[in-house]
Amino acid sequence: MELLDAWDERYAHDNHRCVEAPDRSTLYRWIKGSWPGSANQLIRISSLLDIDPIGLIEISENSAAEIMSSLYESYQNKHWEPQALSVLNDFIGHKDKWPPQNLSEQFYDRNWNLDEFEHDLTLGINFYPVFEIEGASSNHNSGPQVFHFAYRHTALFGKQWAQYGYVTRYGEDCQLVSINGYVDSCVIQSPDAPSYIETWFGPSPTIIRIASLHEFTAKIVANPNAIDTRLRFPA
Question: How many whole angstroms separate alpha carbon 53 and alpha carbon 108?
Fold first, then answer.
């Protein structure tokens, strides 16, 4: 099986990462949807597939509020079930450094792709700018790409980052997941079209950071009224 060969090539001969490959039946269960036994196993199989591990987590609109509540309870109690979900430890909550650099460097052998936008109060307060995001290539069908969103106050709260959600793009399908349990999705007109995301610019000076394990470009749309299909992070 190609994945087992790839596992051995990447992990079995590196003393820093030496980890025995799963057997075929275990790997087959993972592919069919069973959770790996640990966060590191989840990240390793994700990196072999060149997919953000968050992109493998399915959250439906009907169960989102319950799931996010359960995830935050797991984060607060430091008890994750299944254990593989402990990968979220490095994303949830306030962080001095975000996103987790050890994940990208150790398992993906690269840095995160980042873009930042400062909310200049002279441009206004309490409004929703529209971000145009284009993914790693013109064809989004090669696999789901995840865009993580975080913000920090420019002076208060220790200038710590707080992730407030993420957007997953796969082909023409786009899904937004907020930490408050809100989930929305839409279908883009074509796989090579950008995603349009609204996020709140409130009364305080903040910096919005977008992060992805894959290349992307992002900009604020000058004429948002011309955009028909968009998703919004609630304020």
Answer: 11
Task: Provide Rg for the chain, Cα atoms.
Answer: 18
- Model confidence over 147-185: pLDDT tens digits? 999 999 988 888 999 999 999 999 999 999 998 889 999
Which residues fall within 8 angstroms of residue 169, CB to CB, at 6 or more apart?
133, 135, 140, 144, 145, 147, 188, 195
**Interatomic CA distance for residues 45 and 180, integer angstroms:** 28
CA angle (110 as vertex; 231, 178 as ends), nearest 5 = 20
Nearest to 92 by CA among 161, 190, 11: 161
> Which segments of 21-112 are extended strands (E)?
94-95
- If one counts every other C-beta atom within 10 angstroms of the C-beta of residue 208, the result is 22
Q: Are 52 and 144 in contact (CB under 8 A)?
A: yes
Helix and strand numbers (H, E) in the chain are 5, 11
Question: Of 197, 134, 211, 143, which Cα lies nearest the Cα of 171?
Answer: 143
The one-character DSSP state at 120 is: -
Q: Give the number of residues written for the chain.
A: 235
Cβ neighbour number for residue 196 with a 10 Å cutoff: 20
Q: Which two tokens stand for residue 74?
A: 């797991």
| 129-144: pLDDT as tens digits | 999 999 976 555 568 9
